[in-house]
Each structure stands twice: as structure tokens, then as C-alpha cells.
């Protein structure tokens, strides 16, 4: 006979969660899910119409997790269909195609759409986000590198994984980390555990690395006007050096950014009398 204590223990052990997939059309959301759930890859593009729904069971430590997966259509045409599915999600897969910069740039607007649809429920700290840099098998057409993707993700407290639904690379590791974080969050009273949110670098450091990567010339990199004086260049350099010094900054890409700043200063000073 089942005792109340047994029932309570079983209840604690089983968990139901809802996860959703977001990202531009054709980035590989459905294929990532299919690779994990069905261990296969479909090369032909079959656009998701509105929403695809599926359930899978996974084991995390001593708990059985029933995962409800809502795979969203990325095409803007389906906005009206997907907008009501954002609510009550514990996990979000944010997917982009490493060969299409616009799909990476679109991640901000996907977060924006989600926040808008969730309205007052939009407590992003109670949701585990995983960024999938997908199609890494297509190395020749890659335009968004790992440092850039990782920086975007980790500066927001999101996980980052390089994945290929085609080869299977990164897929199991990504889902394991995803479900294990969701379980940790549920056991932590619905808050993302602090260890994940604190990533060892500040938003200012992450924003500065991003700005330096995207700067158009050495003046722009140091944040001074063309024609600035030696003092102005040195002052700007010192500020960036303190922020990005490899001993102090662990933001992805900060070492390269630091080197670029050193080179920019050297080349500017050469030409200033
Ligand atoms: P929507 O449902 O329209 O939002 O698209 P989606 O993001 O679900 O894309 P889907 O999974 O349908 O994949 C789009 C196309 O990319 C298909 O032709 C897939 O075969 C291909 N694809 C998906 N993942 C990968 C990958 O990792 N590598 C390669 N080479 N192709 C992939
Ligand atoms: Mg799809």
C-alpha cells in the first residue's frame, strides 16, 4: 500500500516544466529538438507552422522531469499564434545560425517580444536561458565567432553552447545543462541560482569588449575624437586598460580587446606630435 510519506517523496521527485524555443526562421530550432528527442536530422527545411508541441521525460539526479516543449515558428507571420505561449516557461532555448549575422542580432528582439508578451509576469530571473550557436558544422560560412556569441550570452547570465543539429555536436551537453539548471532553479524556489548569474565580469566590461570589436578605427576604439591630443589618447587608454586588463577581466574576448586597445594607442601616438 502506498503511504502518504511515499506519495510525498514521489511528488518531490517528479517535476513538470515548460520550455520554449525562440529564434529567427530556419536557424534550426526544430532540428535541435528533433536531434535530442529522436536522434535524427532532417536536411529538408520544413517550417514550423505556428507551434509544435511535444513531451519528453528526462532524469536529473534523483528526479524525473516531464518536459513540455513548445517549439515556436520563427517567421514573423506567426507572431499572433506564438505570442500566447510565452507565459509560464521555466526554460528558453534562444537559437541563432552562426552563418547568419542577422539571426544573432535578432536575439535582442526575441527577448523583447517575450518580455512584452509576458507583461507583468516578465520575471526573467525565474527563467533559464540557453543560447545555441547552431550550424557550427558549416565552418566555411561562419560569420559570428564563439567569443562574440559567448559574450552576448554570458553577460546576461545565460548559458552558451555551440551546437550542430546536423552532426549532433553539443546537443546532449546543452540539454543536460539546460534541464539540470531548470531543476536547480525549481529547487531554489524558482530563482536562477546565483552562481549562474554571476559570471565574474561586469556588464560594463562586456559592453566595452563588444564596442571595441565593432569599432571602425583606432580613434573609435579608444573612444576619442579624430585629432585628439596625446593626453586625451593616454587618458582614454588608461581607462580601458584598467577595465580590460587580463588580470582583472575574464569576459570572453577581453584579451583580444585589450591587445587591440594597446595596438590602437601605439599607432595613434606614432602619428601625434
Ligand atoms: P522555423 O520553424 O521556420 O522557425 O525554423 P527552425 O528554426 O525550426 O529551423 P529548422 O530546424 O526547420 O531548420 C532549418 C534548416 O536548417 C533545415 O533545412 C535544416 O536541415 C537546417 N539545419 C538545422 N540545423 C542545422 C545544423 O546544425 N547544421 C546544418 N548544416 N543545417 C541545419
Ligand atoms: Mg521550426
UniProtKB/TrEMBL annotation:
Q: Which Gene3D superfamilies match?
A: DnaJ domain, P-loop containing nucleotide triphosphate hydrolases
Instruction: Give me the Gene Ontology terms describing cellular component.
Output: nucleus
MF GO annotations: GTP binding; GTPase activity
Localization per Swiss-Prot or TrEMBL: Nucleus
Q: Which residues form the J domain?
A: 217-273
Q: Which NCBIfam families match?
A: small_GTP
Q: What family does the database annotate?
A: Belongs to the small GTPase superfamily. Rab family.
Report the protein name in the record: DnaJ (Hsp40) homolog, subfamily C, member 27
Q: Which organism is it from?
A: Xiphophorus couchianus
High-level lineage: Eukaryota, Metazoa, Chordata, Craniata, Vertebrata
Amino acid at each position: 500500500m502506498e503511504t502518504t510519506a511515499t506519495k510525498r517523496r514521489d511528488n518531490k521527485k517528479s517535476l513538470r516544466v515548460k520550455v520554449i524555443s525562440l529564434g529567427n526562421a530556419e536557424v534550426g530550432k526544430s532540428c535541435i529538438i528533433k536531434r535530442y528527442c529522436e536522434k535524427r536530422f532532417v536536411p529538408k527545411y520544413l517550417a514550423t507552422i505556428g507551434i509544435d508541441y511535444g513531451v519528453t521525460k528526462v532524469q536529473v539526479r534523483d528526479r524525473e522531469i516531464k518536459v513540455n516543449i513548445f517549439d515556436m515558428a520563427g517567421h514573423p507571420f506567426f507572431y499572433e499564434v506564438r505570442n500566447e505561449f510565452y507565459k509560464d516557461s521555466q526554460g528558453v532555448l534562444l537559437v541563432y545560425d552562426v552563418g547568419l549575422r542577422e539571426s544573432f542580432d535578432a536575439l535582442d528582439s526575441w527577448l523583447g517580444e517575450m518580455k512584452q508578451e509576458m507583461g507583468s509576469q516578465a520575471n526573467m530571473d525565474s527563467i533559464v536561458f540557453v543560447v545555441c550557436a547552431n550550424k557550427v558544422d558549416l565552418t566555411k560560412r561562419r560569420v559570428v565567432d564563439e567569443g562574440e556569441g559567448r559574450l552576448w550570452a554570458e553577460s546576461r547570465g545565460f548559458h552558451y553552447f555551440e551546437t550542430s543539429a546536423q552532426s549532433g555536436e553539443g546537443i546532449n551537453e546543452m540539454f543536460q545543462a539546460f534541464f539540470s539548471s531548470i531543476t536547480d532553479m525549481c529547487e531554489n524556489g524558482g530563482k536562477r541560482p546565483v552562481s549562474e548569474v554571476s559570471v565574474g565580469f561586469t556588464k560594463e566590461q562586456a559592453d566595452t569588449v563588444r564596442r571595441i570589436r565593432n569599432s571602425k578605427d583606432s580613434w573609435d576604439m579608444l573612444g576619442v575624437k579624430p585629432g585628439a591630443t596625446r593626453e586625451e589618447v593616454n587618458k582614454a587608454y588608461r581607462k580601458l586598460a584598467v577595465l580590460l586588463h587580463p588580470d582583472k577581466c575574464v569576459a570572453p574576448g577581453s584579451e583580444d580587446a585589450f591587445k587591440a586597445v594597446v595596438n590602437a594607442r601605439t599607432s595613434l601616438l606614432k602619428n601625434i606630435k
